[in-house]
Amino acid sequence: MFKNYFLVALRTIKRNKIYSTINIFGLSLGIASSILILMWVNDELSYNSSHENLSSIFRVMENQHYSDRIGTTSSTPGPLSPYLKATYPEVKYASRLTWPTENLFNIEEASYYESGRYVDADFMEMFTFKFIEGSASTAFNDKNAVVLTETMAKKYFGNAPAMDQVFRMNNKESMKVTGVVEDWPKNSDFGGFAYLLNFDKFMDENKQWLDQWGNNNVSTFVQLQSGQDWEVYSTKINRLLDEKNDENNIELFLYPATKMHLYGSFENGVQDGGRIRYVKIFGIIAIFLLLIACINFMNLSTALAVKRSKEVALRKVVGAFRKHLIYQFLTESIVFSALGGLAAAVLVIVLMPLFNEISDKSLVFEFNTATVLLFAGTILFTGFVGGSYPAFYIARFEPAKVLKGQLKSGKAAVRFRKVLVTTQFVLSIIMIFCTVVVYQQLWYVQNQDTGFNKEGIIYMEMQESMAEKYDLIQDQLLKDPSILSVSESSFSPLSIGNSTWGLDWPGKDPQERILFSNFAIDGSYIETMGLTLVGGRTFDKTMATDTANIIINESAARKMGFEPLEAVDQPITVWGERKGHIIGVVKDYNYSSSHSVIRPMFMMFEKDWCSYIIVRAKPQQYTAAIDALNSVYTTYAPAYPFEYRFLDVDWAEFYENEERTGQLFQGFAWLSIFISCLGLFGLAAFAIQQRTKEIGVRKVLGASTSSIITLTVKDFALLVIIAAVIGSPLAWYLMDQWLTDFAFHVDISVLVPLAAMLLALVIAIVTVGFHSIRAARTNPVDALRYE
Questions:
Q1: b/e map of 13-28 (b: 16 or more CB within 10 Å)?
Q2: What is the pLDDT of residues 694-742, one digit of tens each?
Q3: What is the SS3 assignment for 439?
Q4: DSSP letters of 306-373?
Q5: Which is it for strands 266-267 and 70-73: parallel, antiparallel or unpaired?
Q6: Which residues contact 393 (CB under 8 A, 6 or more apart)?
Q7: For residue 593, which of 659, 518, 651 has the smallest C-alpha distance?
Q8: pLDDT value of position 601
Q9: What are phi and psi of 537, to 5 degrees?
């Protein structure tokens, strides 16, 4: 029986080549795009899944309570990890993890900066490492041990064993290789390291500030014993820091490692948003594209039903039951879907490199069990959804009416096809609307007034004796004609990592806690960065008292209860011991991304903290400025490779995720329109074919070409307008929710839905107009001879 159904399906495809081609092509595009998106979604959902103990691993996080908000951070005190393991039997393993740090590695002639982290020995037991050389139990027996990834080991040693090889790190000390591990999968948090170092070494070198309960500087992970209730333990340590710090404002809590990647965003102490928002958005897009392709199939199948009415009638006359006809047409639908799936597999293979480049993934299309199941599921879903209505609709035909020639394409069927076309364009207009808003926001954040001039800013980290000889370096650089100004800072301009609530002033409520970002600068930083002083002055190295003074931003002045100009000369105390004054107030500038509001901030004149040189180069002379920096580097840090960064590149990198989102939205929006128009093209051809005699009569009676075109186009144009009315509010709501991720964002204009509607309308008119013009220019005699 099913063999017969299959043969009939193939004959139908052969008999209706144009419509079959449109159907299969549309289905292949819908299935291919959905598969690509679902592979991306699966990659996101499977983040960190390579770690066998993930379900029992938790990150220790902090909720810091301030007067105006609750700040959530994963940065914790250095002594916390060993204390938890030693004090609580619930904890099986505990490890600290530093932020990525770059060190210079030398071996023979090879010398490179590599990015890695310091971890405790327990880190190797908690997370899954596949050792190629060495073992987890012995990896950190020595403080000067280094564990390499396979990639770094091959970079330095090729295929030779790396075990027990010795590096020079930062031209100071010898580090011994005690293990080589396979690289973590790319879909792993913290997986971008080339090496791991022993945290005990880091503690020895930084004990003065690291071994303090009042300082937050590392991430802490714990693995609980089997059977422990993590929520109970989280409550148990909630107020632990009350015992360690006076006037503690911090609550500790555990956060499951299984949620880190997708649910890692917090707002005012509560989990809010995160990557899961994008996973949901793209999951919906995959369904949209698949539905659009299914609707194409439904539309064309029901439109062609009249052509197959006699076939259905004869089958019923010779004894076919309704269920047999339903099986037949569902089989045909699945055959169409399977052919579309085969074409989709080819498209996925061809488009995968481009998709990976845009999405910043390393997805691989392999015919394994998961891929086969994904394809089979998508094909069956498409076949059943796309073929369900046509199957039930065609199987309902009455043989007597069909054979007497009384069957017409009923109003219900026409109405249903209009609903399907409208649904297609609702989905397409939502995609267009979202694409426009994403690109508007991208343009806004990349071109907004940031409060500083990022053009021409080049910076580099100081090495060896450069910090000590900064004054000489500054003089040397200022003599170069390509450089306008030179300054130094404790952080790169967009990575200010210090914050404190230890700032006091007369009149401050003793119970009030306000978190201030803070960093060190020299007297030329404000000029170099292009900041605006709204009151007061900058630091002056000839004034010894400036080492106790600070410069604040407008937000800090307002938090302190002053207008910006009133704040100048106000006395302050930093950390209970540095007594000075506010000597200047700078206009608020965005020293973070547009996702965050501008927080209160102060700058100090602390030369010993500075580790970055920042220069402003003259326009069109960037290459000469880089050469000048390179000359300085070669002179004062000859053993280190010269590396530099442009500030405008850093700013653009803040929005890489949004830019990728915009590119994907744009691609899928055009794809949804194209698939919709494929169906519309076939449907318009069928609709005009059905009205061939009517058009011939109208022409004989004097109808103009333009009136014939208008007659055939207006129905479809009306459907697009209805789709815009339905789709625009939905898209507006979705984009309004997306924009809440940004502290600075565009306002959605009424022009956006109008633009989306006009674009869809023009495309629909052009698609239908092709057939309309052909019909309008047909000789009426030929039209009246039709059939």
A1: beebeebbebbbbbbb
A2: 777 777 777 777 777 777 788 888 888 999 999 999 999 989 988 888 8
A3: helix
A4: GGGHHHHHHHHHTT--HHHHHHHHHHHHHHHHHHHHHHHHHHHHHHHHHHHHHHT-------SHHHHH
A5: unpaired
A6: 302, 305, 413
A7: 651
A8: 95
A9: -140, 175
Please provide the DSSP assignment of 249-270 as one string: -EEEEEEEGGGTTTS--EETTE
Instruction: Please give the C-alpha separations between residue 4 and each of 8, 72, 315, 427, 431, in angstroms, as whole numbers.
Output: 6, 65, 13, 37, 41
User: One-letter amino acid identity for 123?
Assistant: F
Q: How many residues does the chain have?
A: 787
Task: State the pLDDT at residue 762.
Answer: 87
Q: What is the DSSP string of 622-690?
A: HHHHHHHHHHHHHHH-TTS----EEHHHHHHHTTHHHHHHHHHHHHHHHHHHHHHHHHHHHHHHHHHHH
Beta bridge partners of 602: 518, 552
Measured in Å, how far apart are the chain's first and last C-alpha atoms? 35
Please choose, from the candidates 388, 387, 389, 404, the residue with its C-alpha nearest in 3D space to the C-alpha of residue 310.
404
**With contact defined as beta carbons under 8 Å apart, do 700 and 675 qualify?**
no
At 444, the pLDDT band (50, 70, 90 cuts) reads confident
Three-class SS of 582-612: EEEEECCCCCCCCCCCCCCEEEECCHHHCCE
Q: Which residues pair with 148 in a beta bridge?
A: 180, 195
Contact 316, 35 (CB under 8 A): no
Query: What is the per-residue pLDDT for 56?
Result: 96
Q: Is the pTM of this model over 0.85?
A: no
| Residues 162/156, Cβ–Cβ less than 8 Å | yes
Query: How does DSSP classify residue 520?
Result: E
Q: What is the residue whose two structure tokens read 């488009």?
A: 351
Q: Three-class SS of residue 722? A: helix
**Mean pLDDT within 324-346:** 81
Cα angle at 26 between 20 and 29, to 5 degrees?
140
Residue 188 has pLDDT above 80, yes or no: yes
